[in-house]
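Dear colleague,

As promised, here are the two records you asked about, laid out in our usual form so they can be pasted straight into your sheet.

NAME FIELD: protein one
SEQUENCE, THEN STRUCTURE:
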Amino acid sequence: MAAPLLLHHQRPSSASENSPSKNTTTRNNNPIQTHPCILLLEKCSNMSELKQIHAQMIKTGLFIDVFSASKIVAFCALESSGSLHYARLVFTQIPNPTPFICNSIIRGYTNKNSPREAILFYREMIEEGLTPDRFTFPSLFKSCGDLNEGKQLHCHSTKFGVASDSYIQNTLMNMYSNCGSLVSAGRVFDKMLERSVVSWATMIGAYAQWDRPVEALELFRGMEFENMKPNDVTLVNVLTACAKARDLKMAKWVHEFIAENGIEFNVVLTTALMDCYCKCGCFSLARELFDRMPEKNLFCWNIMINGHVEDSDYEEALLLFRKMQLKGLRADKVTMVSLLLACTHLGALELGKWLHKLIEKENIEVDVVLGTALVDMYAKCGNIESASKVFREMPQRDVMTWTALIVGFAMCGEGEKALKIFYEMQRSGVKPDAITFVGVLAACSHAGLVDEGYSHFDSMSNLYGIQPSIEHYGCMVDMLGRAGHIAKAEELISEMPMPPDYFVLGGLLGACRIHGNLEAAERAARQLLELDPENGGTYVLLSNIYSSLKKWDEAKRIREVMVERSITKPPGCSLIEVDGVVHEFVKGDMSHQRSSEIYEMLEDMVRRLKAVGYVPNKSEVLFDMDEEEKENALSRHSEKLAIAFGLISTRPGIPIRVVKNLRVCSDCHSATKFISKVYNREIIVRDRNRFHHFKDGSCSCKDFW
């Protein structure tokens, strides 16, 4: 708690303490202001020169003049080359310091980010019986970060009769806002007799700052009702509120208001509008504004790059970064976090490595946020060793950093290592959050540690006060399903405090496929189709379960239903990065410039795989066609095309990394195991559920995914 400020006030013993000295009575005729020492002060550029001028003032007797002394203090306190320490020494030599002199020192501490010293000096000032004026309190309010102390200063401003000053009231509102007391800020605003545009902007900004966008927008409408024309700051604050409220309609209205009222679209205002459009999901309008800007600063580029990442347009985000580089702008931490996120989604490990080297080359500080982004990128691109290395080199880690590595190990099928990191996290004193436990439970699932999974699930609420969400229940269902406890998984679903979603029921259906539990599969499928009758993935998985159990009529019936209802399987898409370029493939893709070579490699793959025992799983083909057509369709799946491209584009021994948007089908999974052995390649596939590390004919998932 802040120490109480002194409320007593001693008036000066003589009028001379609040008025110019005898020597300054001639200032109306400007003899002091035109003195050579004063004129030299105007040109002074450093403390060495200042000290020489100060010495000359003392020698000539000029320093005893309060005006002259105030000029010395003002330079020391307010100039970038000044010295507050010297200002304080000078202050002790002034017999009758004026409020201007005191205010200069307080402002100096505030400007140089020494708020405690500003408050302490004010206390000394009051103890000495010096009187603050209306210029004293704005700097004090800016320095104040403690609510109780701020309220005491508010009382002082009232006691000294300056609380009704509009500038003081505006800074007072800002102080209360920064201290988190919107109620107090609102009271000051409501009691103002006259509100300037700055007053409205300050209060609107306070609501926007503390995630109260509805109140901010209501206040803006009230401002319009009182015919108060907003300034740039007001509009920026309103756009911030629109962004937080995701109020696209209001954002467009503000855009029209700016245009109709002839307000200049300066960089700050345009950037705020761009940011608002991005946060409201209207990326096309944001890009339109961006492209029209004659001059763009780094902040503009960062907003637009991040906007494309938020829009899942990762390639465009990377392309925009290249354009930014050509303009001669250097990236900062914000840029790099967005770009690393793009690489994470694309599975672009080589590009991510290049960005890591660029971070080191440009001496960009790797703080907790950027370090976590690097850990996450490496982990989700399948390079868990590099993720661990970055993690170990970080001087500071927060819960998100630990979680990124835990989730990374879990996705890579390294459940026991993930739990080892979790236990280390607990020993370090970092408190896990809800996302951490998603990784922990996934790790237990992949490692088959059912008892440990239950223990961690219970500890969420018992030890950490975290109520399990549907994601946590989904992990538990997946864990039980992997272990073959289908009945227990169904029982857990029935006991959930919320209805199951597609993730939960889909995990159960996948477990039924692995363990051949048709009855439970049909129950799960019925629930899934009630949630989403048009989801082709459910039909496909159920059809595959029937086929695997040789229930051909049932499988055919499912396919016929899909045809009758025009239900299609979600299109599969696979990405592969070669030489820093990400290539995208879909099923049967012929658009690639090296298609002829890719399909030649496919033929070679099929021939060589069959020679060592590979048998295509034709039950994966949904629609009626002859056996040769089914086999041909299977060979053209997107991940096989990506792998074929990787084989013809990389040197022997280089790992092939593929990212797929859907779950890997059984045939592709089987074929990739054979490919890894026949071609002696390590193949890493990241599908919707997890990583598959194929090597020497086996997969890290142990055929459960």
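NAME FIELD: protein two
SEQUENCE, THEN STRUCTURE:
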Amino acid sequence: MKIKSSQELVAEAKKHIKTLSAQDIKKLNENNECVLIDIRDIREIWKEGTIKNSIHIPRGMLEFWLDPESSYYKKGKIDDKKKMILYCALGFRSSLATKTLVDMGFVNVAHVDGGFDALKKTGFEIIKKEKK
């Protein structure tokens, strides 16, 4: 049985989503025009930190926390009037997650080309998250 590779899935997703550079996102963030959503696993965040003022929504819960009809819905978790910018470590998972949000009907959503690594290199402030 031939399956699609994860690389094929990411490439297909990127055809249907908006990809922004870390530099573009820095400008949006400085103008308070976006909300940064970190979809990485909590263990990655404990190890490497996260972008200051970003919101952590684990990849596995993203659709459920943002769906008003879901029993897991997190009302007020994000300011959906602003552009939602998703990021993961390198941009692969966030590509797939952004495509899923587009499929759900979200229009003001994009992901970071190069992910957390690119954001760090662009000078975003990194904060540590302690284990609970």
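A couple of things worth noting about protein two: The beta strands are 18-20, 34-38, 50-51, 55-56, 83-87, 109-112, 126-127. The longest strand covers residues 34-38.

Best,
R.
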